[in-house]
Amino acid sequence: MLAVFVPTLGAFVLPLMASAPRLRNALAFVFVLAALVGSLALVPTVLSGRTVDVRLNLPLGLNFVLHADGLAVFMAIVSSLLSTIIVLFSTGYIRHYDYQNEYYLMVVLFLGAMMGLVYAGNLILLYVFWEITAIASWRLIGFFREKQHVIRADKAFLVTVFGALAMLLGFVGVYVQTGSFDLEAIRTTLKAAPLGTLAVVLILAGILSKSATLPFHTWLPDAGVAPSPVTALLHAAVLVKIGVYVFARLFIVTFTITPECHTAILWVAAASALVSAGAAMIDTDLKRIIAYSTVSQIAFIFLGLASGTVIGIAGGLLYILMHGIAKGGLFLCAGIVEQNTHTKDIRQLGGLLKTMPITAIAFLFCALSVMGVPPFGGFFSKYMVLSGAVESGQWWIALVFVVGAFMTIVYLLRLFNMIFLGDLKKEAKEGSPVMVACVAVLAVLALVSGILISPSAEFARTAVQQMLGTGQ
Amino acid sequence: MAGTDTMDTMLDILLVWLLVGAAMATVMTPRILWSVIGLAVTSAVLTILMFRFDSPLAAVFELSVCAGLIPAIFISTISLTQRLSPEGMAERRREKWRRFGLLPVLVILVGVALMQVHIPLDFVAPPAAKETDVRNVLWHVRHIDLVGQIAILLGGAWGVVVLLKERKRAA
Amino acid sequence: MLSLLILVPLAGLLLLNLPFTPAMKRTAWAFAFTVALAQVAMVLVAPAAAWSQQGFLAQYFSFGLEAKDLTRVLLLAIGIVMATTLMVGRSMITDDRQQFNFVNLLLVSIIGMNGVVLVTDLFSLYVFLEVTSVSSFILIAFNRDLGGLEGAFKYLILSAVATVLMLTGVALLMLVAGGTSFETVAAAMKTSGGITISQMAVGAFVCGLFIKGGLVPFHGWLPDAYSSAPAPVSILLAGIVTKVSGIYALVRLATSVFPASGAMNEVLMVVGAASIIVGALAALGQHDLKRMLAYSSISQMGYIVLGLGCGTPLGIVGAVFHLFNHAIFKTLLFVNSAAIEQRTGTTDMNRMGGLGSRMPVTGVTSTIAALSTAGVPPLAGFWSKLIIVIALWQAHDYGFAGIAVLMSVVTLAYLLLMQRRIFFGKTSPEHAGVREAAAGVVVPELVLAALTVAVGLLFPWVLNTFMLPVGGIFH
Amino acid sequence: MNESILLIPVLLPLIAGLAVLAIRGPVRLAREVVTLVVMLANLGLAIYLFGQDLTFVHPWAGVWGGIAMEMALRVYQFSGFILLAVAGFSLLVALYSWKFMADRSYGNQYYGYMLISVAMVNGAVMADHLVVLLFFWEGLLLTLMGMIAIGTKDAWKTAIKAFIIVGVTDVCLMMGIALTGWLAHTLRMSEIAAHPLSLAGLGSVAMIFMTIGAISKAGSMPFHSWIPDAAIDAPLPFMAFLPASLEKLLGIYLLGRITLNLFALTTESWVSTLLMIIGAVTILLAVAMALVQKDYKRLLSYHAISQVGYMILGIGTALPVGIIGGLFHMINHAMYKSCLFLSGGAVEKQAGTTDLARLGGLASKMPITFTCFIVAAAAISGVPPFNGFFSKELVYDGALERHWIFYAAALLGSFLTAASFLKLGHAAYLGKRDPANEGVKEAPMAMLLPMIVIAAGCVLFGVYNPLPLHYLIQPILGEHRLEGHDFAGLPANWMLVAATVLVLAAALVNHLVGVKRSGSGLGAADHIHHAPVLSTIYDWAARRFFDPYDIGMAIVRGLSLFLWGIDRFIDWIYDSFIVTLTTGLGWTVRLAHTGNYSLYIVWSLVGAAAIIAFLMRIL
């Protein structure tokens, strides 16, 4: 449980070291690394099928349970891996902005809360960490103190808190129906009767608001105003994945819900994919486009997870990994571009391929992975999600997602050629070596994850087996 | 016997109306002097009522309070206040009338409404405790209230000190 | 032992003022502060035996005092808020003459509050309520400025209405029960609780308490009294006075004395919900910091009453826990506003801005308090609201649970609004030179913030030792 | 001879390609030498593998719900044949581009992409597992975009366009594969081939998706618009290499696998008629566009599209004769089309331009190129002794058997093809020489050799056609499908041959009339161009109305505008609606707090009265 405690507690130590920036950056990096190492240590045990439990019973059923199984460790590794890269990136990016202590505090706190959430075995504990991430993201989005940014940060915070509170009501509903907050206990009791639709709807509202799906998705593009490593961390790698993870953890592993709920989720995901893809086509702000594309990719992951078939769920999990890497890369490239050209409006950008070759190529690699072009990781996950959707019988929805895939290809290419190709409008030199290194690492990772697909696929398969408890 | 009963209740009702009228008068008169007099009348009528409801001790207390209170206010109003100019008086009367014009109508309305509510007194009053003498109860049984009353007195003292005492011009 | 809680301040009062020697004056503040701290220590440390009534004084005076777990929580809250008020008062009120008066009045109010909490008799409950009200009137009008006087006057008038209602209630109960002590009334209520007279009496008394507690239909006086009172006084008022005089009595009577009737719960729930909604919405529109905090405390009171109204032991636990938490973080918010007022001289949020960099400690502590008020998890406010929501949901009052949760979003909205207006954004020119608040204010801020976070994190321990026995009232 | 040998054709060119990409620096020769050596090795391996039946299976991405995802490669006569063709063509183009790319700047990128695309094609052809097919299939996307982008300075626009078109159709292919996998419960093509899926319900939908993928790679009508643009922007050997030969081979190979192995395509199913319609439409429209082109390379690229129509028409007939005709046409087309492109390249290299107006009278200057051009042009127009004639006859036979309208369309197509090539030949090579290209001399030997080899191949496949039919194509269908008759040798139906000869004569006459009327070779087709009805259609086409890519992009833009509207609406709700709602409520509440205490008293009294009344009444 090293993974959970070290970053969360560590986060609070950081501001004390405000004096020595170099030491502080290093320490932040060490904490995040600790989380990664902690989760990696769990891999062997989980692969062999066993799960690790830490339990501390408390009154009123609000006991402190940490539970690590395939799904949890997979998510933990994905998010801690990306956070390490992003923290490394931000050392270069944040250097010439003030409030750095607060920044590092919040980033490490965010990761600690993320670890806690992934391993939480109790609904209320899950909710607590969920809210801590909301606070951290609120402070991070509102990092630049301008009025407009702070309003956006508040909006994001309010929408997520609204969703979270609805989810809390749902949890209380579950508590009343099953008599306990522990996931294992709920799972057994719920085998008999499916969960009441009111509780399901409420919990769904929470999940949708956090993973920025259709009705609650507007805060994600607005949060683009935050410093780019934050948006990368928030949008691509971790925050939205929390919503998806909780969906997987609750709706697949623990609850059994009525079939029409499944189709309802699928339709919401489909609508969200299309609307956000459309918006990405039109928008002109660099970060907003990438944020919209995150919203539509998240809908893809929902499709995979809600399809209910083994291949779909595994596809969803892989998609989380691939999308995290690729989208993280895209955002970091956007960060470098924005920092050098001081503008986010893609109409004014152009022809950066010649002046920023490495960033351009990294951007292209990550975009291709998101599009699902073969040698890159995205291809496998997109294929598995699509065949999962087809296999689950709703091939009409699969059709909608194919259209979504079309639009993904189109708007990512539009973005690529608006920024990097065409004639040079603004002079821009290459980003600082550390930042470019990070972006390059992510791009290579996107490529390698495609070629060496078997280890991650194997890991996903064991996770899915544990989740469904079937011996497929 | 029935006659005297009705006569008594009639008298009580009359006294209560008198009490309410005096209270309204204190509030509505533009001149401070008249309001002080109104106050005196209310407390007097209250004492009579208490005597009629055969609780002499409470009546005596009320009387002593009223005796102490009325002269103090009386002297302070006379010495501290000066007469208002005629137009000042007219303006004050208009302002008073504007705010409290509707008061009597309101009171009558509430009175009528309360008449409709019929409260069944269907309960058996428990036997009264043995020594019910006020003095005994106050002194032996309810010491805690004594402490409360002392605290209120001290509070009142500080109220006077804080609010009314002239501040030396703060430097 | 219990009686000491009342007698010691009383004796102190008398001693301090008799000899008129200047030496005594300086010790006044120290004496009051030790009394407050002693009270806190007593609650935390004192062995169970101390709580029983016997003591050498018992044979002289028959004080019907007793302290169940509920009262211990309240005494703790009173002690903490009193200590904070004294510290803030010391640094805010510079003139020592004024300070002496301030301390004396505080001692009076501490007597009143301790009395209310400890007393077991309906009429003496009323008496001590009056004590606290008297001291609050004077404290509100302490600075003798127009706003203060107006606020005090309003509070006075409405307390008068409350007195009328409570006294009629007591009189009628006396009629029905023959005595006014909680036991006799409770016994009477069990037998003849249903008849109209007793219902009327209970209704009247409860409405009197509503007025004192400042709940929605009766909350007129609260915003004016809080906002126009001098800073340390509004801390005292918001922190504890309305809670003790209004809510504590309600909890005490609803649980043990009055009959647990569905209608009463219904009334509590409706009043609670109404005050949450009106409080939150009104706070949204305010631009004066203290008025906004006043409305916010009305809204939080609504939560407590809502918790009380669902009638289950868990609801009571939630209500009392929220009462305690609210005392802590609302005091913290008012201390923050006092700090801002001390430094910038104004509480009008439109003219503030960007104080975050100037006053970091106040900024951080007010963020913690705001998040705790809105019920964001790691902090104390979340747990109490959670218990209230669970209780409501178990009592199948989905509508009220929904209101409670949704309104906490609005709460969060106006608190974030406050944060943004005061601490973020660019610093307005007139406050450029502002430095951090004085030590006297910063220390309580840190203590209270630490307390909020501690209660939030050590929630399980707090729940076991303090709160669950409170729920035990019923078993 | 273990199966892992199958991996070599994929890995060898891939590694070589990456190596070439990595080589910076001046060692120019190294690139060409490495490419040639690898191509030769590839050809040798293809020859070696031809005729073998090997399967290589290696677990790759886990087992999902019973369907295994493993790297399964398989060589059997059909894929062996395609492998051989691919190896041959890539060798020839590599040889050709040795000289052509000599002075070009992006040389190493070009060679690198070429090697990688060869690897990808080998992989796709040998793939036995549908996902592996898709993996290599979409891999081509990258090299396609890369090669186009390194052409002229702003060639990236066409690269993006090509990427989008092919990318979108590849996603359709992915959908088709997912559906087929689900229907057949296995992704191994050999297992599906055992009992092909019926075309009922979902089966036809799956087939449609897969065919979209196949024909878009082959470059047929609805997805063709990137090829003409690429003809101008991309380096010429690329045109000869990918669109002309490799992509056609791969696309039609997949179409063949779909119709033969995966699905039981029957003559009466609507899918086959759909295919034939697409084929016919492609033939007509593409060749009509080709007729009016003024640029050597664009004319050839439109012809490439129209020839694909023949193949699709052939396979679409679902008759043995049609399928054999289609496949035979595929290999013939690959040969003469690449030869034509190479001749175009030679002209461009020597004369410096491909604009027909400034060319003319090159026959005497470039005799060998001219002869190769004549052979290839005759082959493509279906002049009897050459291979094009025989494969077209088989296609005509199949088309006539199904319905005369298709036969008429095919015939009209070959008429227009013949006319346009006569125009091209006349304008480029005969006619009076333009003074500018006086000093033009013959193309270097390295460029001429591939042209000569291919031209010889055309003649060989034409004259002695049983060789390709018996050994390469007919075994693909296997004995039971052929129903015994052998299509080699001279076409059976004499009436068809007469009609073809008649059509060719008509084309010659039309050409002479055109030349006399307009005075120059170039104007030969003007009288058709300016015919009343046709001219308006041509204007529209000129203004790119018919370009499906632009239409598609317009639809997408419109759709996304609408969706963006929805998004803005939801955003509006959050930003303004809820905010005004709450402030409005807040304001009304504040309205009630006027501040005069009498109002408060009234409130509290009314409240108290209400509560007490409520309590009493409930009693």
Element-by-element helix/strand order of chain C: HHHHHHHHHHHHHHHHHHH
Q: Return Rg of chain C in Å.
A: 21 Å
Indicate the multimeric state: heterotetramer
Distance from N terminus to C terminus of chain C (CA atoms, Å) equals 27 Å
Overall, the morphology of chain C is globular
What best-fitting shape of chain B do the alpha-carbon axes yield?
Answer: extended
- What share of residues are in beta strands of chain B? under 5%
The number of distinct structural domains of chain B comes to: 2
Mean pLDDT of chain B: 77
Can you give a write-up of this model?
- The complex is a heterotetramer of chains A (472), B (171), C (475) and D (619).
- Chain A is mainly alpha-helical.
- Chain A folds into two domains: 1-257, no CATH class; 258-472, no CATH class.
- Chain A contains 20 helices and two strands.
- A two-stranded antiparallel ribbon of chain A has the order 1-2.
- Chain A is globular, with a radius of gyration of 21 Å.
- The two termini of chain A are 30 Å apart.
- The model of chain A has no long low-confidence stretch (mean pLDDT 76).
- With 171 residues, chain B is mostly helical.
- Helix content of chain B is 77%, strand content 0%.
- Chain B contains seven helices and no strands.
- In chain B, helix 1 (2-28) runs antiparallel to helix 2 (32-52) and helix 2 (32-52) runs antiparallel to helix 3 (56-80).
- Chain C has helices at residues 2-17, 22-45, 69-92, 96-118, 122-140, 146-177, 182-192, 196-213, 221-228, 231-257, 262-285, 289-309, 313-344, 355-358, 360-374, 380-394, 398-422, 439-457, 459-471.
- In chain C, helix 13 (313-344) packs antiparallel against helix 16.
- The longest helix of chain C has 32 residues, at 146-177.
- In chain C, 64% of the residues are buried.
- Chain D is mostly helical.
- Chain D contains 23 helices and two strands.
- Chain D has helices at residues 7-22, 28-49, 77-100, 107-126, 130-149, 156-184, 189-194, 202-218, 226-233, 236-262, 270-291, 296-316, 320-351, 367-381, 387-402, 404-428, 445-463, 466-482, 494-518, 526-529, 532-542, 548-592, 597-618, and strands at residues 54-64, 67-75.
- Chain D starts with 6 loop residues before the first helix and ends with a helix.
- The model of chain D has no long low-confidence stretch (mean pLDDT 77).
- At the A-D interface, helix 12, helix 14, helix 17, helix 18 and helix 20 of A face strand 1, helix 5, helix 6 and helix 22 of D.
